[in-house]
């Protein structure tokens, strides 16, 4: 993941929003494919938590945007790795 050193904050926010969207889509897919109600609810809770987190981070807070981009990208990578196992 880029360090965003020379990246305008508006672009950092766009990456933040895109990463959140990708992870939301993945969680939604996992919720839809769940084989039990508790599993479906667990993934859906992650969708709601991600939505709330995205709304809570100010668009001008570069540090927090980058923290969440890094965390969410790692979560996506972990889910992709789990799919391959």
Structure, explained:
It is built from three helices and no strands. The chain is 80% helix and 0% strand. It starts with 8 loop residues before the first helix and ends with a helix. The protein has 85 residues and is mainly α. The mean pLDDT is 96. The longest helix has 25 residues, at 9-33. The radius of gyration is 14 Å and the shape is elongated. It has one domain (9-84).
The percent range for strand residues is: under 5%
Question: With helices defined by DSSP (H or I, 4 residues minimum), what is the helix count?
Answer: 3
**Biggest β-sheet: count, sense, barrel?**
none
Series of H and E elements: HHH
Task: List low-confidence stretches.
Answer: none
**Estimated radius of gyration:** 14 Å
Total beta strand runs: 0
Q: Could you tell me the mean pLDDT? A: 96
Number of domains: 1
Structural category: mainly alpha
Helix content: over 70%
Assembly state of the chains shown: single chain
Instruction: State the end-to-end distance.
Output: 23 Å
Rough outline: elongated
């Amino acid at each position: 993941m880029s360090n965003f050193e020379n990246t305008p904050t508006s672009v950092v926010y766009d990456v933040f929003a895109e990463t959140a969207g990708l992870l939301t889509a993945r969680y939604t897919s996992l919720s839809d494919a769940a084989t039990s109600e508790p599993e479906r609810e667990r993934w859906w809770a992650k969708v709601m938590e991600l939505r709330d987190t995205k709304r809570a981070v100010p668009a001008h807070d570069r540090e927090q945007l980058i923290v969440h981009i890094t965390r969410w990208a790692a979560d996506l990578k972990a889910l992709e790795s789990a799919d391959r196992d």
